[in-house]
Write a structure and sequence with these properties.
The protein is an alpha/beta fold and about 200 residues long. About 35% of the residues lie in helices and about 25% in strands. It has one domain: Rossmann fold (3-Layer(aba) Sandwich), CATH 3.40.50.
């Protein structure tokens, strides 16, 4: 918690600027963005400051909503109220069409079995030609791009065997089966990446 009482993620604080620079290049000025797993709401508030014309819908599991709501009330009161969203619960997904679905640092936390649900339901709610933007650490098959990511992967699996850094090659294959085409892969600080997929027309 910060002195203001708002929930705070040091990682979100560090990565918000480089993520924001990428989003400035890829998002239309009045895009409608659905964020999956908003955490503390820091990315939602930061991106709203960068792109005030963008509608940014924050979502997360119920236990995180009070913290997100408190931050947005202070830093981005124009944004809609955050919504409950478990990616496996189809009825919780807000209706589209959205221009972009965005998620950061979620795939290595949720079980891999949840990823197909995220890919499928995002495709159902994003307009044709819309984007899926995923930020986080990834590996290429069994190859890690840094020892720090290998150690992080081991820590995650010790914490919960269902967690772990995901294979970008497997993710691309899975995404293709739900109508997504890999559009870009952008190297980010601290051995992270942004993967951008476009929904097939």
């Amino acid at each position: 918690m910060t002195p203001s009482g708002l929930a705070h993620s040091p990682a979100a604080e560090r990565n918000r600027k480089p993520i924001g620079e990428v989003l400035l290049r890829w998002l239309a000025p009045k895009a409608r963005v659905l964020e999956i797993g908003s955490g503390t709401g820091q990315h939602a508030a930061w991106c709203h400051a960068l792109l005030p014309g963008v509608t940014w819908q924050a979502t997360d599991l119920p236990e995180h909503l009070d913290g997100i709501r408190a931050r947005l009330e202070v830093e981005a009161p124009a944004l809609p109220v955050p919504l409950t969203l478990d990616v496996t619960a189809q009825e919780q997904w807000p209706e589209g069409p959205w221009d972009v679905v965005y998620t950061a640092n979620t795939l290595h936390i949720m079980p891999w079995g949840h990823t197909p649900a995220l890919l499928e339901r995002s495709a159902e709610r994003v307009r044709p030609g819309g984007l899926l933007v995923i930020y986080g650490p990834f590996r290429d098959g069994e190859r890690f791009d840094a020892d720090s990511n290998r150690r992080f992967d081991e820590q995650l699996r010790q914490r919960d065997p269902a967690m772990g850094i995901r294979d970008v090659l497997k993710l691309r294959q899975e995404a293709g089966s739900f109508g997504w085409t890999a559009e870009a892969e952008i190297a980010m600080p601290a051995n992270n990446r942004i993967l951008i997929f476009r929904r097939n027309e």
